What does this fold into?
Amino acid sequence: MTATKNRGRRLAIHILIGAILGVLLLHPITKVVYWIEFREELANESLWTILLSRLQTAFILEMVPMNIAFGFIGGLIGCGFGLYHCALVRRDSEIAFLETELTNDLPSLIELGENERVEFKSSLRWDLKQEKMNPALEHVIIKTIAGFMNGVGGTLLLGVDDDGNVTGIENDYSTLKKKNGDGFQLAIMDLISSRIGVDFTSLTKIIIHNVADNDVCRLIIHSSNRPVYVINKNQKRFFLRTGPSTREMNIEEAVRYIQTHFNL
It folds into this structure.
């Protein structure tokens, strides 16, 4: 079952519980308030008598509109608590994901090689063969990030070639206004914002490591709860991490995957 289905189920349960409590709890509470305010006029009736009477008559036909009203109010309250609970669950899930990803030190991660959850890229925009900046390389990076977001998440290491050799990202620094790790992180966030969307930047955590006197950028990428598209030449494209590679899905494949994975 997908995370989206789980969140929907949790929210529905909270709304249902809220609606039930609205009828069985909020409604009697209003009678308590009423009794406290007018207890001099209701001196002949005890609080328990009024509450029992209200509960006994709560489900007669004449009380249906009132029950619907209190059920609606209770449902709204339950929805609020449900959203808060889902936010806490998501935060705990993110913390657990980060803890899992960070259990492997970087040399061990590199030694394991590329797989469904790990990808190596030599640089962000510096072409090592041509020895100059090549903006086209950014498209390779952004589609890998999107592929992880559309799948189960994973780690992208920048500054490591396909064979696991540390190349570093210092050449990338030279292409930036701010020629250091902070500038590199800003460049990645700007790339995600412009090519995927600002609201997806929160799914990527960036850590700069120093390995053998070279800087390596570690991107820890969370899976998304909705489809992620890469904007390229005014077109939206859908990428998915499958095995040790990222591939673009055609329209039919993308629609089928989105319907099943994201429950849309």
